[in-house]
């Protein structure tokens, strides 16, 4: 079946290179949907994203595109920043290849939308927010761009010839795009929602510790080990209520760490599970839920 997409269509775009960032993208996608965006949702994924995570992403995003993982290989600069994980953020450059959309807004998987931000599409390439640490630069966590194979080619050429001043995508996009940067996005970029919550439209969880790096107690609605509970509780509330049930359905009886203290799937052998059933102790809210049983039956009947 052929799919025809109007060139006038616009999209929010995110990136997930592994399952952890995929969960971040899931929450981001849900937050955009919940705030009634009229735009398409696209997520670029790397080959290390599991089948279960891909299945959930397909239910949230309009388009899930597998891309090659690009890596800067610049360990010196990344080590200086103490962020070796940023090397693969070069993969973000693939977003310029989405030429079936007329304009896009890229959003990192560690962002959360708390209000409708469709207004960003009124901005031109390349609009972004100032970086909190380097105001003369911009943060590439959220930016407006126009997909172009020509621009993509030039970015890759620039990477080959000049590299990146910080070893990651931030550096290459900042320098390459500096001549057409407009730092006038009307999104209030905050990392202290407790102080500026009334004006916030996008929360960006900067730094190495991401929301999924913590543990959450859904009964107490408390994030363990965090000094920013207000910021993280909103992320975890959305994840546990709307994303986790989808993940549980996809994993079925396969164990996985959900991040929620009361919902961590235990490693249970078939014999132990059978014994629990015989004792009337089936896990009806988890691996023995009706949805999972139905899924197994469907597979068997097919």
UniProtKB/TrEMBL annotation:
Q: Which terms does the UniProt entry file under GO BP?
A: glycogen biosynthetic process
Pathway of action = Glycan biosynthesis; glycogen biosynthesis
The protein's job, in short, is: Glycogenin participates in the glycogen biosynthetic process along with glycogen synthase and glycogen branching enzyme. It catalyzes the formation of a short alpha (1,4)-glucosyl chain covalently attached via a glucose 1-O-tyrosyl linkage to internal tyrosine residues and these chains act as primers for the elongation reaction catalyzed by glycogen synthase. Self-glucosylating initiator of glycogen synthesis. It catalyzes the formation of a short alpha (1,4)-glucosyl chain covalently attached via a glucose 1-O-tyrosyl linkage to internal tyrosine residues and these chains act as primers for the elongation reaction catalyzed by glycogen synthase.
Q: Which reaction does it catalyse?
A: [1,4-alpha-D-glucosyl](n)-L-tyrosyl-[glycogenin] + UDP-alpha-D-glucose = [1,4-alpha-D-glucosyl](n+1)-L-tyrosyl-[glycogenin] + UDP + H(+); L-tyrosyl-[glycogenin] + UDP-alpha-D-glucose = alpha-D-glucosyl-L-tyrosyl-[glycogenin] + UDP + H(+)
Cofactors required: Mn(2+)
What is this protein called in UniProt?
glycogenin glucosyltransferase
Pfam families on file? Glyco_transf_8 (PF01501)
Q: Any one cellular component term from GO for this entry?
A: cytoplasm
Question: Which source organism does the UniProt entry give?
Answer: Sinocyclocheilus grahami
Q: What is its main location?
A: cytoplasm
Q: Gene3D superfamilies in the record, alphabetically?
A: Spore Coat Polysaccharide Biosynthesis Protein SpsA, Chain A
* Listed EC numbers: 2.4.1.186
Keywords of this protein's UniProt record, alphabetized?
A: Cytoplasm, Glycogen biosynthesis, Glycoprotein, Manganese, Metal-binding, Transferase
Top-level taxonomy:
Eukaryota, Metazoa, Chordata, Craniata, Vertebrata
Q: Provide the top EC class.
A: transferase
Q: Which GO terms describe its molecular function?
A: glycogenin glucosyltransferase activity; metal ion binding
* Compartment(s) of residence: Cytoplasm
The entry's family comment says:
Belongs to the glycosyltransferase 8 family. Glycogenin subfamily.
């Amino acid at each position: 079946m052929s799919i025809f997409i109007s060139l006038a269509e616009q999209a929010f775009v995110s990136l997930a290179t592994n399952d952890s960032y995929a969960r971040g993208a899931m929450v981001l996608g849900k937050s955009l949907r919940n705030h009634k965006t009229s735009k398409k949702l696209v997520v670029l994924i790397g080959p290390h994203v599991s089948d279960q995570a891909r299945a959930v992403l397909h239910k949230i995003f309009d388009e899930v595109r597998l891309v090659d993982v690009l890596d800067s290989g610049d360990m010196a600069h990344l080590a200086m920043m103490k962020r070796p994980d940023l090397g693969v953020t070069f993969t973000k450059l693939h977003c310029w290849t989405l030429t079936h959309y007329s304009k896009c807004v890229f959003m990192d998987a560690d962002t959360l939308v708390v209000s409708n931000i469709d207004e960003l599409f009124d901005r031109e390439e390349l609009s972004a927010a100032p970086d909190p640490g380097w105001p003369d630069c911009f943060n590439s966590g959220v930016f407006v761009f126009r997909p172009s194979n020509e621009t993509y080619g030039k970015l890759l050429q620039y990477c080959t010839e000049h590299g990146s001043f910080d070893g990651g995508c931030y550096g290459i996009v900042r320098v390459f795009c500096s001549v057409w940067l407009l730092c006038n996005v009307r999104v209030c970029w905050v990392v202290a929602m407790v102080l500026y919550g009334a004006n916030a439209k996008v929360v960006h969880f900067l730094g190495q510790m991401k929301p999924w790096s913590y543990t959450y107690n859904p009964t107490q609605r408390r994030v363990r080990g965090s000094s920013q509970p207000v910021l993280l509780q909103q992320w975890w509330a959305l994840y546990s209520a709307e994303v986790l049930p989808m993940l549980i359905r996809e994993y079925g009886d396969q164990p996985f760490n959900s991040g929620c203290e009361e919902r961590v799937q235990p490693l249970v052998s078939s014999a132990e599970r059978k014994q629990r059933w015989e004792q009337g102790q089936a896990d009806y809210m988890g691996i023995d839920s009706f949805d999972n049983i139905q899924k197994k039956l469907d597979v068997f009947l097919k």
